[in-house]
Each structure stands twice: as C-alpha cells, then as structure tokens.
Write a structure and sequence with these properties.
The chain is of the alpha/beta class and about 350 residues long. The protein is built from 12 helices and 14 strands. A hairpin with a 4-residue loop joins β1 and β2.
C-alpha cells in the first residue's frame, strides 16, 4: 500500500495508536501553571498587555512569553490580537470563568492556612484609588506593621471598576474606593466606612470668590479664568453629571482640558490653567494640603470612602487590624481648609456628582 492509499482512522484511539508505537515512551505534555492562569486573568481584564504587566509587576516581554507558553500548552489561541487591544477567543471565553474559580480556590486556601500562623506570615493584597492610598493608607499600614512585623503588602492603584474585578477574582483581599462609584456592583462584600470626602471647587490661589455674588463682579481676567474648566473623566455617567454641574453653575464656561486623574487636574489648576471639581482628599499631599490653590465647598454629596472586604476576613488577622487602623486613620485625618460656598454657587444642582 502506498502512502496515498492510507486512510486516516476515524476513531481517536485508533488514531493515537497509529501515531505512537505501543512501546514508545509517552511524551509528557507541558502543564498549565497558576502563574500562567494569573497572567491570563490579568490580560483578560486589562485593555493592554502593558496594563496587565504593570498590575502583575512583570516585564511585558516576560508576560508575553508566559502567555504564549499557555496558548502552546492548550493548543489554541486564547486571545485575538488587534492593533491596540486583545479580545478573548472562544477558547479564552471558556477558560476565563474556570481560571477565576481555580484562582479563587487557591487564594481561599492560602488565606485559610494563614490563620494557623496567627496572621504572622501573610501577604495582604489590596487595591485602591490614588487619594486613599496616598493619604489614608500610610498611617494604617504603619500601625498594622507594628502589631504584625512579619507581614508584607501588595498594593495596587486602580480605578474603581478594576478594584471590584480584582475583589471578585480574589486577586486582592481589600478594596479602598468611593462607595457611590460601585454601589450596586459591590453586593457580596462588606462596606466598612472610612471617611466622608467632600467635593470642592479648586481654583488658583489668586482667584478670590469669597464675597462674590455675581461672577460678573470679577475682573475680566478672573472672570475668564473662572470659566475655563478642567474636567476629570471617569465613566460616562460621572462625566455627564460633571458637565451638567458646569452647565448649570457656570453656563459660559468652556472645557480647556480633560484628565484621567484628579491629581493631574489639580496640577493644571495650580499652574493657572483653569478650575476643576475634585474630592478634598485629592488636594492633600502627605499630611499637608497643596499650596497655590483655594478650595470652595459646593452643594454636592461627599464621596463615602469605604473598605470593601469579604465577610470572612473581617475578624481574621491581620485583616481585622488593618481595617480597624484604616478606620482610625480616617477619623484622625484633618481635611484641608475648605471655604464656604460662593454665593453665586450656593444652590442645589439638578443632579449629584
């Protein structure tokens, strides 16, 4: 029989027997590792490889190599590569919930075993928004380390939606964020209140609004400065509410810049580029408030800064101590000096920020 006359067996067992002699050594297939699953999960929940690498603390070439090894092991592509993003293939969509379950189980195992060490040898993983990590966390971390000197921390700065993803994926134990940014989505976690963070109007120091009842009273240069808005963009609904506030309170304003962080927006205000709305915490640097700006209270609900945590950690050390010290740090924190609401802004907006 020639090679062209041979037929491919339809039975899988027969196919394998045809491909490998009976006494041939078995080839050991590469195994999927937890490290590869963590990388897969991070890439699936990130917009880019760069962002996933930053979240995991890996160099991007190393991350790409591990992802390629995982795809080689499973024998198919898990992602479709586009110019500026990666999307899951059918195989990737199948793997994602199963990988999440494995990672959750492993995290629960590690946390459960941690209780037998009395909280002494534990890595506390937490994610939070920038202002809370900078202003509230340091004092709490120091107090917790004084009681548990052998623990260490894995801290990630992230947006609220990403923090919630990491909590559900058991990639972090605690999330520090504004409750109103994830209100309905945070079902299943305890919300431990830490601090009320009021929204303020941040203006350059030279722009005095204290006794102004009508902005037309301002000098032309100050009036022009008041009507240059620098807006922080966070999600469609938040951006719309901020835009509505400006339209109602300063109808002649124009947007001169859009930012993805309050800190950048405030930096532009300090330089005299315009004004912005921001939470008071974002105007604090270390234990002192920034110079070069004035803060005016506005009629808007404060951000409720909370710690999100799974119920099993609330009484388990060292998490319980960290939560207690976070609450103490929030209570002890002195917010920067905030001036009363200017008369021309002292009315309720149609929607909250």
């Amino acid at each position: 029989m020639t090679d062209d006359d041979r037929t491919i067996p339809t039975d899988l067992t027969a196919l394998l027997q045809t491909a490998r002699p009976r006494n041939a050594p078995r080839v050991r297939r590469p195994e999927i590792t937890l490290h590869q699953l963590r990388i897969f999960w991070a890439v699936a929940h990130s917009e880019t490889l760069t962002r996933a690498a930053k979240q995991l603390g890996l160099a991007q070439p190393s991350l790409s190599q591990q992802l390629s090894k995982l795809e080689s092991t499973v024998g198919t592509r898990l992602f479709r590569r586009h110019s500026n993003e990666m999307t899951l293939t059918e195989a990737g969509t199948y793997l994602l919930p199963r990988a999440e379950q494995i990672l959750r189980n492993m995290q629960d195992l590690e946390d459960g075993l941690g209780q037998f060490s009395g909280g002494q040898r534990v890595t506390v993983r937490l994610a939070g928004i920038n202002s809370v990590l900078r202003v509230v966390l340091p004092a709490a971390l120091t107090s917790t380390q004084a009681k548990f000197p052998d623990i260490d921390f894995d801290i990630q700065e992230s947006a609220p939606a990403d923090i919630l993803e990491m909590l559900y994926g058991r990639r972090v134990n605690i999330g520090l964020l504004a409750a109103n940014s994830v209100a309905e989505a945070s079902v299943g976690f305890l919300q431990i209140p830490l601090i009320e963070d009021p929204y303020v109007l941040v203006v350059p120091e030279q722009l005095e609004l204290d006794d102004i009842t009508d902005p037309r009273q301002l000098a032309p240069s100050d009036w022009a400065l008041l009507n240059r808005s620098i807006q922080f963009i966070f999600g469609t609904q938040h951006a719309k509410r901020v835009a509505d506030w400006y339209d109602q309170m300063l109808p002649e304003h124009r947007v001169v810049a859009q930012c993805r962080s309050f800190e950048v927006a405030i930096g532009l205000v300090r330089a005299g580029s315009g004004i912005c709305l921001a939470p008071a915490l974002s105007t604090v640097s270390g234990s002192t408030s920034l110079d070069g700006v004035r803060l005016y209270r506005i009629n808007a609900d404060a951000r409720r800064i909370v710690a999100l945590i799974a119920s099993q950690y609330r009484r388990q050390e060292p998490y319980a101590t960290l939560i207690d010290t976070l609450q103490a740090a929030g209570e002890a924190l002195a917010l920067p000096g905030i001036r009363p609401t200017p008369a021309f802004l002292n009315r309720a907006p149609l929607s909250e920020l």
